[in-house]
Design goal:
Layout: H1 3-13, H2 20-27, H3 31-43, E1 47-51, E2 55-60, H4 67-73, E3 83-90, H5 93-102, E4 109-116, E5 134-141, H6 151-169, E6 173-176, E7 180-183, E8 186-198, E9 201-212, H7 231-235, H8 241-260, H9 264-274, E10 281-286, E11 289-298, E12 304-307, E13 313-316, E14 320-323
Parallel strand pairs: 3-4
Antiparallel strand pairs: 1-2, 4-5, 5-9, 6-7, 7-8, 8-9, 10-11, 10-14, 11-12, 12-13
Helix pairs in contact: 1-4, 2-3, 4-8, 6-8, 6-9
The structure holds biotinyl-5-AMP.
Length: 325
């Protein structure tokens, strides 16, 4: 934890103010050093007031992502969020995580970018990432299971993100198989899980998540305005992205702990209760193949079980779902 993260943590913890002497003692640095860091934080846009009686008080934080701030907002991450990096611009945060993975970086590291020049969805589709308006981030995971179970990570991510958004904003969100979170039927979050594996072992998973936070409809290409939405559009107000990020990371870390404890079923049950696709007659398109049937449930690997007209159960692990009227 850096000095800046420790200062922000202390200021948030004591909204009534913390004296320079107190901060200096807690951090093991001089009062002059505390003052210098406070000045540096002010330059980053943190509104910190200094008064002789109350000491330093954090009045407002900028809506920019800073690794130190994100770390300071975490409770006690077990894995996801114990290391956080912020880039101003990148091709895709998934690319950076891929590089980290090859360099042997430990699982749990999270990369955010203020802007992505080549944000991507599945199957070569584009992910539009208006700079500074959303949370465009990826997580490196090294789960101990066979490649066939990798869909669990997408399920876990959708469950955690849906719960965090619901609890923070009160919005009613729904999960759409396999990787969308919708509000009023429009896409609010997209999830892209990419994997590197040997035949019987996952090497690593790159979990990429895009959340439209303060994206105004006018900032989206016309073709997306009818199908996409954002927290701003749904709630009518701007959100501090760091606050949303902290809630998402905490939920992801909690659910990754559930998965590691062998409790995927609890996650799958929660997913099923939030899913708009289950119980519906759907058509799943997988490349040239189309399968129709009734979406019944998730199996223990995170695959969707579809009951076809002929009564057979099909296991689906990808594809796009259209809901039949
Ligand atoms: C996804 O793909 O939904 C996965 C999106 C993952 C994005 C994150 S951002 C951080 C990380 N880095 C990346 O490069 N990607 C991940 P898919 O199910 O294929 O949906 C893609 C479709 O969503 C597009 O074809 C558009 O119709 C729509 N779309 C694109 N940008 C959007 C946005 N900002 N909000 C809502 N919908 C969008």
């Amino acid at each position: 934890v850096t000095t800046d993260a420790a200062i922000l943590h202390a200021l948030r913890h004591d909204p009534g103010g913390a004296s320079g002497a107190d901060l200096a003692r807690r951090l093991g640095i001089s009062r002059a050093a505390v003052w210098a860091r406070i000045e540096a934080l002010r330059e980053l846009g943190y509104d910190i007031e200094a008064s002789p009686h109350q000491g330093y008080q954090l009045l407002d934080s900028p809506d920019a992502l800073h690794a130190d701030d994100l770390i300071a907002r975490q409770r006690r991450p077990q894995i996801i969020g114990r290391d956080i990096r912020v880039f101003q611009e990148t091709t895709s945060t998934n690319d950076i995580i891929e590089r980290f993975a090859r360099d042997g970086v430990e699982e749990g590291v999270v990369v955010f970018a203020e802007s992505q020049t080549q944000g991507r969805g599945r199957l070569g589709r584009k992910w539009v990432s208006p700079p500074g308006r959303g949370l465009w981030f990826s997580v490196l995971l090294r789960p101990q299971f066979p490649p066939a179970a990798a869909t669990r990570i997408t399920i876990l991510a959708a469950t955690a993100v849906a719960r965090a958004v619901r609890e923070l904003t009160g919005l009613r969100v729904e999960i759409k198989w396999p990787n969308d979170i919708l509000a009023r039927g429009r896409k609010l979050v997209g999830i892209l899980t990419e994997m590197s594996a040997e035949p019987d072992r996952v090497r690593h998973v790159t979990l990429g998540i895009g959340v439209d936070v303060n994206v105004a409809a006018s900032e989206l290409p016309a073709a997306l305005r009818e199908v996409a939405t954002s927290l701003l559009e749904e709630t009518g107000r701007r959100w501090q992205r760091a606050e949303v990020a902290a809630a998402l990371l905490e939920a992801l870390d909690d659910d990754y702990a559930r998965l590691r404890d062998g409790n995927f079923r609890a996650i799958a049950d929660e997913w099923e209760s939030q899913c708009a696709t289950l119980g519906q007659n759907v058509v799943v398109e997988m490349g040239a193949r189309r399968i129709s049937g009734r979406a019944e449930s998730l199996d223990d690997d995170g695959a969707l079980l579809l009951r076809t007209q002929h009564g057979r159960l099909e296991r689906i692990i990808g594809g796009d779902v259209l809901i039949e009227k």
